[in-house]
Amino acid sequence: MHRLPIRVCTIALAALTLLASHGVPAAFAQAAKGPSGLPLPRFVSLKAKSVNLRVGPSVDYAVAWRYLKSGVPVEIIQEYDNWRRVRDADGTEGWVNQALLSGERTAVTAPWMRGKGADIYVNMRREAQSSSTIVAKLEPGVVVKVGECNGDWCRAEVDGTEGWVAQIEIWGAYPGEAFK
Q1: Residue 94 to residue 54: CA distance in whole angstroms
Q2: pLDDT tens-digit readout, 136-157
Q3: Would the CA dihedral through 45, 48, 49, 53 be positive or negative?
Q4: Sheet bearing 51-54, strands edge to edge
Q5: Tag placement on the chain: N or C end, fewer CB within 10 Å?
Q6: Pick from 15-29, 71-85, 125-139, 165-179: least confident
């Protein structure tokens, strides 16, 4: 039997921990469960139109940022009592009271492409395949409601238009994640 040196095992464990903390799905790293019993990390959305992002898990902590729109997707990365440490599509992190969060799934279209050019779009298609008819061209940064994902495509809706977007072109569902 071949044994790996302790240092190699430690590096592998550190790599898995790093992957899990950066939103890699359970298929690639073992998913942790928070005190709530729900997986960490996981995506949710903002329920309220005004949500304070605090520097710590209590109203005693300063407000670092205020979101002024409901439905914005965030990733829960830590839990403490009724507070959730979240990260948004821009990488901003802070604490939000769980009462201000919703299990409704939303996503942001290609936030990493914002400001990169006038003719960059995420195609929303009639069916979950790249050869299907385009029903809308979405600019980077558009928030869409996500109904389901099959691991490659997500059924989405924005302003009354429904269709499918490639899962790799949104922030709000992990690569390979499937849900209904």
Answers
A1: 5
A2: 999 999 999 999 999 999 999 9
A3: negative
A4: 63-67, 51-54, 93-97, 83-87, 73-80, 42-46, 101-102
A5: N
A6: 15-29
The percentage of the chain sitting over the pLDDT mark of 70, rounded to a whole number, equals 83
**CA-angle at 129, arms to 127 and 134, nearest 5°:** 60
Write down all domains in the chain, each with its CATH number in brackets: 27-104 (2.30.30.40), 107-179 (2.30.30.40)
Return the SS3 of 44: strand
Distance CA 13, CA 25 (A): 16
Distance CA 91, CA 75 (A): 10
47-62 tens-digit pLDDT: 999 999 999 999 999 9
CA–CA distance, 131 with 158 (Å, rounded to integer): 21
- The C-alpha atoms of residue 20 and residue 14 are separated, in whole angstroms, by 10
User: pTM for the complete prediction?
Assistant: 0.81
Q: Encoding tokens for residue 12?
A: 């592998």
How many residues are present in the chain? Answer: 180
